[in-house]
Amino acid sequence: MAVPFAIGWALAAPIQMSVGKAPSDLGAETVEFKSDSGAIVKGWWCPTVNSRGVVLLLPGIRANRLSMVDRARLFRRASYSVLLIDFQATGETKGDHITFGWKESRDALAAVDFIHHVDPSARIAIIGSSLGGVAALLTTPPLNVNALILEAVYPTIEIATRNRMENYLGPIGRMLAPLLLRQLHLRLGVSPSQLHPIDHIGAVDCPVLIMSGQKDRNTRLADTQILFDHARSPKQLWFVSNAGHVDLHRAAREKYETRVLAFLGQMAESR
Q: Could you tell me if residue 63 is left (phi over 0), alpha (psi between -120 and 50 degrees) or otherwise beta?
């Protein structure tokens, strides 16, 4: 009992820190806006003159906007405006617990609303890494965006938990996974059934690019495939060679940039 409890505590514990000043080459403005998660979301808004659209960058679990700076530079060079945020309970956005996409989905919705307020005519793309992709899918109502890129997103919290417990503890981890799942309601007030991105992806009505690392042991090939199978067309699937559950941009920079910019280019040209 003690091991699953300790793992659950560590995964859900807030990880807040000062992110410092934005890199000067982003041309960023520090912004904040209210979220239904109860948080005041902090972020960097990086507008571009004659923008081709806006890319919202949603970081992974226990990460903050700093993890998305290289992607922000990429999209700024390609003439997109960019919004980087810290989810509730991470970075400079306050919160009691990381909730594996549940409360974070409200932050994602608030971020899209912020973009629509700043630029009502903007076409919006989201890139969600792991937890960030889960948050993008769990929003109710579905996000009003024009393109969605999902990186290493779990299909259900049960699968995500089983995989991670096996990785940590070997075969016994699969047996202990239900003990970790039982903490969700006690610790976060969320049931496992509320953390099923696979039940939401069919409601996404914009083009979707789904990707994961071929060697990812947290979000495995079969997990990514089943999420892709439940998505509407138009959709694309990419397994990144030799990559694990890591920053896929860093793992395959040239191929990532070529593929993602081509995908976003279709959005920008469909005005």
A: beta
